[in-house]
Specification:
homodimer, mainly alpha, 6 helices, DNA-binding
DNA sequence: TATTGTTATACTCTATAACTATA
DNA sequence: TATAGTTATAGAGTATAACAATA
């Protein structure tokens, strides 16, 4: 039997609420908005937060490695790191083993900025837990990880660090 | 007790996998990519699919109503409808009750395009169900709907159709 | 030859302000 | 005054191609 809206005018979106992609997008926007609101005056934007966090956890990581981890195009990371350097949050250092590569490190200011951002993140995440419950949140994370398995061989975290560039997948999303 | 990665190099993303916002974004991109791949040669892109679907279910809906339903800025819908008219998928008709408003309807070509897109959508959604299970998918949809409740008074579907424009929230996402 | 970082560039999506014609 | 549709414009985010230096 088919689902049909009883009163189309009252349900203008029709079945859209049953579409995982649509709801995923709406939820992502709501969560990002809450995240941004929680990051009062901080480095704020979600993408740059991720970059800061990964540098903080992996001091000396190169730009290419960072790009592979976060699925960011090399070309698009440049301006982000430029900005971090301009704000004295991170530094590019010459690699001792490969003179092409830049090793990235947070400055002490950058470390404090990251800690501040992580604290705000905790409150943000707590608001989510309040909405979903602790078990519900864990279930959600598992399901989201499962969904990342769509797109065949591809989400960033899986491709080994020494996959040739031609086969590596950096595409999409900061 | 704190979670710390045993080998930072093996887990470059650190706790990022535990961040709902981050995983939501990754999952959304994977699902959109799968959706787009499923829409072979169609009107394809997710946002325009939603517009087409809402017009199809609500013949005669005005551009403003459509914008309110999908949380799209009025200014940003114009080019989408222009394109639909150019492709002979939809038409703007003068409203009989309000000479400012445009009523939107699908052409017969547009109805066939929508049906084709919905069929492809079904396969896409079936792939998701295969990943999550039927019950898991339903659970996910509920949790995503709950997450949309973040951002206080605001997600599109809730604001009544005759909320004054000044208070209405169209922002974010097509 | 292949990779690293970089520049230049383009396209999509989203946002704001301001105009017009109606209401 | 306020709303509907429109124009113009600006800012993110993401994509590709090509180059110099290095591997």
């Amino acid at each position: 039997m088919k689902r049909r809206p009883k009163d189309p005018a009252a349900e203008p979106l029709g079945d859209l609420h049953q579409h995982v992609g649509y709801m995923l997008r709406r939820a992502q926007l709501a969560v990002f908005a809450d995240f941004i609101a929680s990051q009062r005056g901080s480095v704020a934007r979600p993408g740059q937060f991720s970059v800061l966090a990964v540098i903080g956890r992996n001091p000396g990581i190169t730009q290419s490695q960072l790009c592979a981890a976060l699925s960011v195009k090399r070309a698009n990371l440049v301006a982000v790191i430029d900005r971090f350097e301009a704000l004295d949050l991170a530094r590019r250092e010459a690699s001792s083993s490969d003179r092409r590569a830049n090793c990235l490190r947070l400055t002490s200011l950058g470390q404090r900025a990251l800690q501040h951002a992580l604290d705000a993140q905790d409150e943000h995440e707590a608001r989510i837990t309040r909405l979903l419950g602790s078990a519900g949140r864990r279930t959600l994370l598992k399901q989201l990880a499962a969904l990342c398995e769509l797109e065949g061989p591809g989400r960033a975290a899986s491709s080994s660090p020494n996959t040739p560039e031609s086969l590596r997948r950096e595409s999409f999303a900061i």
